[in-house]
DNA sequence: TCCAGATAGTTTCAATTGCAACTAAATTGA
DNA sequence: TCAATTTAGTTGCAATTGAAACTATCTGGA
């Protein structure tokens, strides 16, 4: 009856692949470091940018403001992130990693990269780049509409 | 400091792309037909296979048994899916679409395909096939570990 | 200047999810 | 044969998530 074959339906394939990868990755962040995915993402962003407002973190990491707010609160509580006043805007503030936060990042980053390498072990470099590119394009396409 | 660039980290790209696509797609199922993603997926599976047990549906669609159970209950409630006894196993049962369910499927399927076509409108056929293939491989890789 | 939006971030509350416990039926093996 | 274990599916409860309301601050125009 159907001309739609779920098994070849790209949104389905994408969701299944993403779930499988997320499950695999988040397990290791969670078990070893007690971090949820948004928390890990926030750390990774701050490691690249040093100091940012929650709003900019959200933009940089596709996190909504509620998620950023909660992740930041949890990380501040654990002493991994610190807050300081935004000089020009009293509603906002800057977030940055503490030295504990940076130390944690230096522990996790290699593991994250190794996990990724493992996931992609059967991919050539071209394929890897291609996947990155295709994912970006489909994402842009989805956002557009 | 980091050798990990979030923006090129494949698990991140995958998650962002999948979320963008899911958001786009689920909105249309939800608004037009009042279906959640697992409900839609269950319908799509039954449209292909005609009659299956919840267990087999779960295997076919990467849904866990709780999700299948709840989706099926909701669809039965709406008269889109029906249950009948499993002759050989009293613990289980068969699920299939009712004629209303099939009618709904015939409405949604073309929309789903059109949405997919739209998402992939800037992809060549080769790229499309390639994406499917790459997603399958990374998924297998993630499941393996 | 000061009031009417607009904006940053947080909190509250309701919906969704997922684990673990549960029921019921089937299978295994002494 | 029948008790112990396994399996199919459901349900109850706790954690996660997200939308909308809220607080505090900022901006722009009379």
State the gist of this model:
Two copies of one chain form a homodimer. In chain A, 68% of the residues lie in helices and 7% in strands. Chain A has 145 residues and is mainly α.
Biggest chain pair interface: A-B, 61 and 61 residues
End-to-end CA span of chain A: 29 Å
How helical, in percent, are the residues of chain A?
55-70%
Put simply, the count of helices of chain A is 6
Q: Widest sheet of chain A: strand order?
A: 1-2
Oligomeric status = homodimer
What percent of residues of chain A are in strands? 5-15%
Q: Note the overall shape of chain A.
A: globular
How many beta-strand segments of chain A?
2
Uncertain stretches of chain A: none
Mean pLDDT of chain A: 93
User: What is the structural class of chain A?
Assistant: mainly alpha
Q: Secondary-structure element order of chain A, as H and E? A: HHHHEEHH
Q: Give a quick account of the main beta sheet of chain A: strands, pairing sense, barrel closure.
A: 2 strands, antiparallel
Rounded to an integer in angstroms, the radius of gyration calculated over CA atoms of chain A is 18 Å
Task: Sum up the structure in keywords.
homodimer, 145 residues, two-stranded antiparallel ribbon, 2 strands, 68% helix, 7% strand, DNA-binding
């Amino acid at each position: 009856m159907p001309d739609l074959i779920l098994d070849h339906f790209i949104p389905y394939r994408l969701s299944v692949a993403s779930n499988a990868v997320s499950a695999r990755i988040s397990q290791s962040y969670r078990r070893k470091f007690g971090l949820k995915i948004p928390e890990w993402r926030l750390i990774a962003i701050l490691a690249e940018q040093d100091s940012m407002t929650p709003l900019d973190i959200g933009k940089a990491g596709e996190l909504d403001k509620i998620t950023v707010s909660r992740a930041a609160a949890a990380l501040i509580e654990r002493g991994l992130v610190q807050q300081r006043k935004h000089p020009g805007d009293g509603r906002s503030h800057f977030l940055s990693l503490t030295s504990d936060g940076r130390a944690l990042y230096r522990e996790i980053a290699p593991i994250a990269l190794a996990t990724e390498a493992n996931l992609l072990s059967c991919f050539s470099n071209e394929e890897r780049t291609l996947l990155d590119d295709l994912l970006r394009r489909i994402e842009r396409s989805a956002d557009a509409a």
